[in-house]
Amino acid sequence: MSGFKPVVALVGRPNVGKSTLFNRLTKSRDALVADLPGLTRDRHYGNARLGRREFIVIDTGGFEPDADSGIYREMAKQTRQAVAEADVVVFVVDARAGVTAQDHDIAAYLRRLGKPTVLVANKAEGMREGAQWAEFYELGLGDVVPVSAAHGQGVRSMVEAALDRLSWPDGADDTELQTEGDAADAVIRLAVAGRPNVGKSTLINAWLGEERLVAFDLPGTTRDAIRVPFEREGRRFELIDTAGLRRKGRVFEAVEKFSVVKTLQAIESAHVVLLLLDATQGVTEQDAHIAGYILDSGRAVVVAVNKWDAVDEYQRELLRRSLEARLGFLKFAPPHFVSARKRQGIQGLWKAIRRAYESAMVKMPTPVLTRLLQEAVAFQAPPKAGMFRPKLRYAHQGGQNPPVIVIHGNSLEHVGAAYRRYLEARFRKAFDLEGTPLRIEFKTQDNPYA
């Protein structure tokens, strides 16, 4: 797993269609946001892909580079941080409104930075190439790419133009099975993720037995994802702390520079993610977004609830119910209740981390998978869909971290979600999988007589 995911920031003045374009790219209205206290306009983060190339998209508020007061100043801070985090900037303008003075201000700001930039004219549906595009060259950012975010026209060309400005590392497009050697000997990359101020650095310090990382009662006190080599009971780990800001001397930088990007990229590069929650705050929407991102990334996960000593029995019961309601999609990862500050329960996390890693890297022989599949079908056949009953013939492993099982047969497009869950439960029980997603793919064989 290379862990390389470039970052594309959408920038422009208000009402040019950045959020519509963001939703088009991410194919979702859900986004991870930097929800720091005191920030008026959040940055929104989402996953997107073009073919086999994946990238992170940041949606920003309307940008006024010279704003010096009120909501517009806060929005400008957020946008400047998004540009700083990005590998390439997509500058969105309104094709129908033409170039405005504010567009010139934004273009001048982007030219000063010298970061790769793609100029995109949105709302261009029905407009033909011609003299109307000439004025956009005044911005000094090269060719303009006409798109319609609402209708999807030109969006692929825009993404290709943006990604072509990047240097992709070797293997970034590789989607083949990656085993990374023997799971018993490999270094386990462990990312500790969660909202600001839930105790991530405190937990790692407790594990290491020293003040290796800055721990301070302020949201976002770690600038970058910090990697710490660590060995425990003969196993080698690489701990990744993914908080927001790191202290420089005695001065803490502004809280608004908290970077979600570092957390997302650390999750991508990890084998196992420890999702840390705050018992005093309950399970928040932001926690659910981070958990959803971990699941979408396919990483093994261990859920830990910190500050368990700070809540009474009534609050604990409410929290357990909240875990079931909001994080029910992580039911394969039972929660652990700890206190990093008092070092209570933290040693038990290591057993769960190792088990999650071993489950994620499990090897499933084809004869065993096929036998399990046939036993599952014999016990409960897939229901008919109209005139068709799916026929599941054989299975093999298609990947690790997360484990992927590929099932071959006929009419498999008619296999419903309930039967997929039934098969997943059978495979999980047979291989004793805990703490890792399990993906099942169906491949229907072509009919040679069609």
TrEMBL record:
Database matches in Pfam families: KH_dom-like, MMR_HSR1
Domain EngA-type G: 6-170, 188-361
Keywords annotated in UniProt: GTP-binding, Nucleotide-binding, Repeat, Ribosome biogenesis
MF annotations from Gene Ontology: GTP binding; ribosome binding
Gene Ontology annotations of biological process type: ribosome biogenesis
Binding positions for GTP 1 per the UniProt entry: 12-19, 59-63, 122-125
Entry-linked Gene3D superfamilies: 3.30.300.20, P-loop containing nucleotide triphosphate hydrolases (3.40.50.300)
CDD domains: EngA1, EngA2
Residues reported in the UniProt entry to bind GTP 2: 194-201, 241-245, 306-309
Family membership: Belongs to the TRAFAC class TrmE-Era-EngA-EngB-Septin-like GTPase superfamily. EngA (Der) GTPase family.
Subunit structure comment from the entry: Associates with the 50S ribosomal subunit.
Name under which the protein is recorded: GTPase Der
Source species of the chain: Tepidimonas taiwanensis
